[in-house]
Amino acid sequence: MFAASHTEARPHDTRATYHAGVAKLTAITRKVSPALARCELTHLDREPIDVARASTQHDAYERRLESLGCRVVSLPAEPELPDSVFVEDVAIVVDELAVVTRPGAASRRPETASVARALATHRPLAEIAAPGTLDGGDVLRLGLRLLVGESGRSSDAGIEQLATLLRPHGYSVEAIGVHGCLHLKSAVTQVAPDAVLVNPAWVDRAAFAGWRVIEVDPNEAYAANALLIGDTAIYPTAFPRTAARLERAGIRLVMVDLSELAKAEGAVTCCSVILAG
Ligand code: CIR
Description:
By secondary structure, the chain is α/β, with parallel strands linked by helices.
């Protein structure tokens, strides 16, 4: 456990979070690699992926981001890097700096260089150094509080380095157990200023005391990943029962079909790095 700071973020403490309705957001994305079918897989069996369809779905995702007010910086595809569309994993961005990660899967480490170049015009850069590993998919930011999943991808050393980099800027970094899924954000994401969407089988909901906790439908284990932009969550069409729960809870959704990227264990947060400014 790395309690880097005792600065507790209250649910409504939205300083520097991209959920706060800031004036302008940038979304860094990357086009789908033609090599996507050779992606890393941890919890899913490999099945054929239609790369052309994945690209069309990804284009629609980028348009959703634009419709919610994001300026989309779409990087060209990396033909040799199967998982490079999942840019979330290679950077954690706060107002003060961007931390370029060292992904847990060795095949994904060459993805960082081009995203770092794109981020360098926006933020001072820092990086996670060997032997530490960290995947952005494990980092859930709730205001000034960052929860980091102790998954197969993010090591204690990587989490400790993140804490050391962010502590001086007033953020707390806490390691949290996650079981049965790839990343922390497979198990929990923020869906409103005061609400999180959780699969309680994969993460302990006790970590979200003080939050309104909405659970996924029990038949939709993969449904906890939503991307909150302002007051609207981008949400997959694959989980209608959980979508209905969210709408009953007053969460505004815009839907995307990312079924081909889901075969690569990707979801809505994975496909962008969102930053203010
Ligand atoms: C991987 O295993 O790394 C990719 N196939 C999927 C990464 C998904 N990223 C994310 O959830 N942040």
